[in-house]
Amino acid sequence: MKVIFKLAGKLVGIVLVLFVATFTLYMTNGENKLIYYVVRPFLNKHYDAQSRDRRI
Amino acid sequence: MNLNFEKPLNMAIGAIDKKLERFDPLWQSEHGTGGLRSRYYDKTGIAKYREWRGCRDTMLDYVTWLKNLGMMGLMVAKDPVHMMKAFWEYRWMGSFLGSFAFVDRLFEGFRGRELEVASLHSNTIVRTLCGLIGTIVGNDRRLGGGPLTDQLVGLDETIPTLFFAGFPTLYPEPMQTLPEFVICDVDQHIEPYYIDVAESYGLPADVCSRCSAETGVTIDDAFPIFGKLVISTNQPCNASESTSMFQRRRFHSIGMDDYPFAFAMQHNEKEGNAYSAQELRNCIAKIEEVYNVKFDWDAFFVAAKRVNEQSMIEMEKWEILATPYSPLCGIAETLYKLVEWAIANGRIDYFNDTDRKVIKIMRQAVKDKYEPFKGKTRHRAFLWGPSAVYYTDLPTWTQNCWGLNLVLNMDSTMGHNIIDTHDKEQALIDLAKFSEKGVMRHHAVGGWANVNAVWDWAKKMNCDMVVVNDNVACKGMNGVHAMLEEQARDLGLYFCFIPHDLEDSRTISRQDMRKSISSYMSVVLNEKPLDETLVDFDDSEAW
To answer: Which chain A residue's Cα is nearest to B250?
Structure first.
């Protein structure tokens, strides 16, 4: 019984931590800020430097 | 012991909502302390924080976001190598990273049941697109190929794929949907790049920007490569024929055969249907020959039954959309219908589940006389014309800023005839009719009667207004401006053009589009905005 309570407690703890982390990311719009200000400028630099097989 | 937590829970939520209501942008606009635009960084379209909609609706939106995040994460986790290669290879793949912001934009200001419906639709759309991206990227020869590479069939995105249900071992994948059509919804800056590529090779700048962008993708060698055959088409118009010709040169140069599937342009005529049915037979025969498979009528009928159920539900939705009590509205309706019809087209069963859930919510809303947007809708408009793909969330803005509900879009009325599921010959005729009335085609080509139907639809939907998306580069429709204006006057309907350049946000910006509506609402209708912060703002650097 003790083991079950311990496991259940851990599970609740993990779910709680995950909820707090994802809800904070959601409310602060964190993923969009990261993509807009960091990831996309980096990728755009790469795309602009590509040489492509352009022809009609 | 019967514990009832509902009452204390509602009381707790009510207390928290009251405490935090000043952070709700709708409350702010009502009380002059801000509005829906207040939480954005200037020009970028990036919000400082997400919208506070009250406890229940914020949690609903969070769960929707979490599901979308999970589906995207799963898509990458299933095939991380191909995914990374695709992000490195294709400029348009990078644009898909804007999907979270895109979904946020679509349903800004949605609360209660309209948010519930929008969430169901949002998850269904993201699930479908993740499946599409996963299949195409995971089997792209350019990225190393995959287990299904030879079982994929490339086809023009405007060809309805229902008939492919008769080939259960094959996977019809729209060629242009990822690099051009869908991605333009997500990122307004992606297609101008491809349009510039096309123009740098001499394509004139005044052609339809959708076709120009597709041509640019071709010239830039940015189509994924898969399958043994590409099925091209004349849908929806002559500009599409032109870009199909550019594309077939590229496909031929990489050793891929193409088959031109030409639908009848006069799709109201019986002879036209017979012609398109014969084209279907020919196309099926070509696929059988190239892929060495046999058309399976039983498998086709299963999918046709699915589509028939969708059409029946759709017609019931229209009855509810004609009332003030439809929680299905604006872009939540338009975008979902487009994906359901143009991408899934009966081959994906979970769309029927979503439809059943949504119609249940809608029926209940009618019973409860539930008015979306707290009854703030002032005008109801039928929307004619292909919308600017770079401004998908315009209907959300018209409702939030002016209380103008764009009730139904012409493309939502695409093929909805019932397809025979017993008689093979009749099924082909029904399928031809269903397929001819496709995207940008049902009300745009095939005779004046199809254009004129806009007035009947406006009446059927109890609209007091018709809004026409005016694609400035569409040679077909430029000629009927004056006639439409005259007819609207005769019928006593409010009438407004929204100029746009379909996929090129540089010609007419989102801000300019908003200005055209705002001028009409304030000058002609003498209306005051519901949210001052939405009237004029610059989002030129937003995705």
So the answer is: A56
User: Mutating which of B40, B50, B51, B90 best tests the A interface, going by the most A Cβ atoms within 10 A?
Assistant: B50
What pLDDT, in 10s, does the model give residues B284-328? 999 999 999 999 999 999 999 999 999 999 999 999 999 999 999
pLDDT in tens, B11-36: 999 999 999 999 999 999 999 999 99
A43/B87 Cβ within 8 A = yes
Contact state of B47 with A35 under an 8 Å Cβ cutoff: no
Name residues whose C-beta falls within 8 Å of residue B259's C-beta, 6 or more positions apart in sequence.
Answer: B229, B230, B231, B232, B283, B286
Judge whether A9 and B59 are in contact, CB under 8 Å. Answer: no
Domain coordinates in residue numbering, chain A:
2-49
Which chain B residue lies closest to A31 (C-alpha atoms)? B100
Cα dihedral sign, B241-B436-B461-B326: negative
Closest CA to B182 of B392, B349, B443: B392
Is the CB of residue B471 less than 8 Å from the CB of residue B500?
yes
CB proximity B59 to A under 8 Å = no
The H-assigned helical ranges of A1-56 are: 2-27, 30-34, 40-49
ipTM: 0.95
Smallest Cα distance from B292 to chain A, Å: 32
